[in-house]
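Project standup — Tuesday

K.O.: blocked on the structure for the chain from last sprint. Re-posting the sequence here as requested.
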Amino acid sequence: MLKDRSEAGKALAERLGPLDPAQTVILALPRGGVPVAAEICKVTHAPLDVILVRKIGAPIQPELAVGAIVDGDPPEIVVNSEVAAALGLNRKQIEMLGALELPELRRRRDQYLSGRKPLPLAGKVAVLVDDGIATGATARAAIAALKHRKAARI
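H.V.: unblocked you, prediction finished:
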């Protein structure tokens, strides 16, 4: 076990090996991924950005993820098809639920980056960093958004 997120970032940077900072962007999932990613950036000198993801909760049980929405232009929605089917929700309904999360995504982008636009990823290596993965829903949504942003490798 590692003692903290900083130690985890240093260990991960070592495992990643050399990265070309001109061709790499380190993307952190806030909040826990930010201190891990910051340590990777110190070692690799690659730029740091955040990728913001919000769960789209089911109408009857907000803790149940029917999907996720990722900050971007346009925002990326990833649907948990099994949950959506079980609840009888279609894509349009999930998009409407996701739209309710957009103000919070904007608030968080302002909080973390003072409104700065996401770094361009087209043709670059995107290193996605978090401090852990539970269900994988957030990571899957982030990966879908990174593919949409045309990262060469994730």
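K.O.: great, moving the ticket to review. The mean pLDDT is 91. The beta strands are 24-28, 48-50, 53-57, 65-70, 76-79, 125-129.
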